[in-house]
Write a structure and sequence with these properties.
Structural class: mainly alpha
Strand content: under 5%
Helix content: over 70%
Shape: globular
Number of domains: 1
Radius of gyration: 35 Å
Number of helices: 11
Largest sheet: none
Number of strands: 0
């Protein structure tokens, strides 16, 4: 095979495994977007990780096309650009107006504006001898931000004690993918590929650890909410309505007693008057 002949067998093996696992990483959010499609709402999900992942794939694709014998990198990043674009389009369709506007702003500023600037800078300003290296280190910086992008969701998990919006499959495959591409980078002596995956491995482990910690805590929260809902249902079915009771002074209480006594006397007088006018066959009610 021509591709294998340009790679060390070990590097080729890690590259193939990296492609397979990276495809699983790209496909891991599919249940999330199926949920978004089914509920017609993006709920608490954010578009930033997908925008940054698209930006990274675009840069790595350009890097792989400039570098020789990088077919495996071209293949996976071309797929990444396609699938991330699909995710972003679906997000824009079902996002709220505010989230849709913010997503459009990031898409225009980062994925179009900043990407165009980097391409123009590296292709027309940098010399041919250093162009690949400069673009490679830019890819490293962006890859670090890709792995750091889920940190906002990590903070949300710690704050809410809920892993609802941090899919375990994505964290797991990111960790395995980082291992494969780190090994591929070392085998091909490409530090630009190897270095960012060290951080990816660490952050992937952190996300899985948080999932293990807060997965049970999430169940406790759901049970507490269920109990609160049951209490609310019982109260509503019994037609219990809260009434604010204001403390009364002794003078107010005495005035109310006098008023009640006066009312009773007036009722007795009215009753007596009405009895005088009754016919023999009528009964006072």
């Amino acid at each position: 095979m021509a591709v294998m002949s340009t790679h060390h067998p070990l590097a080729f093996a890690f590259g193939i495994l990296g492609n397979i696992i990276s495809i699983m990483v790209y496909l891991a959010p599919m249940p999330t977007f199926f949920r978004i499609y089914r509920k017609k709402s993006t709920e608490g999900f954010q578009s930033l990780p997908y925008l940054v992942a698209l930006f990274s794939s675009m840069l790595w694709l350009d890097y792989a096309m400039l570098k020789k014998d990088a077919f495996l990198l071209i293949n996976i990043n071309a797929f990444g650009c396609f699938i991330e674009t699909v995710y972003i389009v679906l997000y824009i369709i079902y996002a709220s107006k505010e989230n849709r506007i913010s997503t459009f702003r990031l898409l225009l500023s980062m994925n179009m504006g900043l990407f165009s600037f980097i391409i123009l800078f590296t292709h027309f300003v940098m010399k041919d001898s250093v162009r690949v290296q400069v673009l490679g280190w830019i890819c490293v910086a962006v890859s670090v931000s890709v792995f750091a992008a889920p940190l906002s969701i990590v903070a949300q998990v710690i704050k809410t004690r809920s892993v609802e919006f941090m899919p375990f499959n994505l964290s797991f495959f990111l960790t395995i993918s980082a291992i494969m591409w780190f090994a591929y980078g070392l085998s091909t002596k490409d530090l630009c590929v190897a270095l960012p995956n060290v951080l990816g491995f660490i952050l992937g482990l952190l996300q899985m650890l948080l999932y293990a910690i807060y997965r049970k805590a999430n169940k406790v929260i759901m049970e507490e909410k269920l109990q609160e809902n049951l209490k609310t249902i019982v109260i509503l079915s019994s037609e219990v309505h809260p009434v604010d009771v204001q403390p009364q002074s002794n003078e107010d209480h005495a005035q109310k007693v006098i008023i009640i006594n006066d009312d009773e006397k007036n009722n007795e007088r009215n009753l007596g008057t009405s009895n005088e006018h009754l016919q023999p066959n009528e009964n006072a009610v």
